[in-house]
Amino acid sequence: MSILSENGFTEEDVSQFRMKIKSYDINVISNSISYESIGLNVDFVLNNFNVSASQLLDALRSAKSKLTEDPLLLNVIHFANEEMSLINSERDDVDKFMILNHWISIMNNYTLQQHYITSCASFLDCSNLYIGNLINLFMTETAFNKEESLRCISEFKHSFYHLIENSSYSAHDISTQVKQLTALLERMESLNLFCSRAPEMVKDLKDVNATMGETISLVCNATGEPTPSFTWYKDGSLLPGESNTTLVIYSASLADSGTFYCVAGNIIANLTFQEIIVTISGKRHLMLMVW
């Protein structure tokens, strides 16, 4: 991909340079000359000098017409035209180089050097295998962000094969396709498709028995990559604003009794902990009886 990317960036640079050279045209330069471009304040000239508006306009038109006879400007335009011809010629040579075929040949050699590869025979064969394996990873119903992940992978597969199946692509076509592929790879990287690990329980939740006024801490102990986010539920309903690993209940009351569980989730999957029971009892009172 780096070969294609470097070629793409070169194509982009060439396109920008060609646009600059096109600006060295006698008609473009002439039409761009105005009172404003040469810093002339028309009102100031008309009010302070013995010259009419028509005379001022004639002088501007005369200056424009003399541009075609300016030897320095003619040399610049001649040089620009020669550079344009050279760039077009070199650009055609790049297109004739068939860079896609050359790249695929290099990748085939690299694939053959990987002696541990026994399940595929060529670069394109291995590419199809690995993309298929990646799709299969996200076909499970528990996969988090499943639709977005599959959409990105599918678009990448379509763009990748569209690129390699068109060996006659010009440098400009390659540049466009490489940009699309790069954007998709960056999107997949942001979804962390390649180095992710589903949440795993470190320690489960336990039932809690406490008395009124105590502080209770429930820990949703799970790890994962990326780090999971946490949600807490009481009696089957979401607890708004409770998104930390630890759920703390300060000065517990009888109303805090109930069932609790947490969910740890990342882009791979959600892990639901087993529901526990929290029981809050009234304070014990010491009774002194006097006979």
Summary?
With 291 residues, the protein is an alpha+beta fold.
Chart the SSEs and their pairings:
Layout (H helix, E strand, L loop, with lengths): L1 H21 L3 H7 L9 H7 L4 H13 L5 H26 L2 H15 L9 H15 L8 H19 L6 H20 L6 E7 L4 E4 L4 E4 L1 E5 L3 E6 L2 E2 L7 E4 L8 E8 L4 E3 L3 E6 L10
Parallel strand pairs: 2-10
Antiparallel strand pairs: 1-4, 3-7, 5-6, 5-8, 8-9, 8-10
Helix pairs in contact: 1-5, 1-9, 7-8, 8-9
The averaged pLDDT comes out at: 77
Discrete helix count: 9
The helical percent reads 40-55%
Basic shape: elongated
Strand count: 10
Computed CA radius of gyration, to the nearest angstrom: 36 Å
Structure in words:
The protein is an alpha+beta fold and 291 residues long. The chain folds into 3 domains: 16-96, no CATH class; 99-190, no CATH class; 197-281, Immunoglobulin-like (Sandwich), CATH 2.60.40. The chain is built from 9 helices and 10 strands. Strands 2, 5, 6, 8, 9 and 10 form a 6-stranded mixed sheet that branches. Strands 1-4 form a two-stranded antiparallel sheet. The protein is elongated and about 105 Å long.
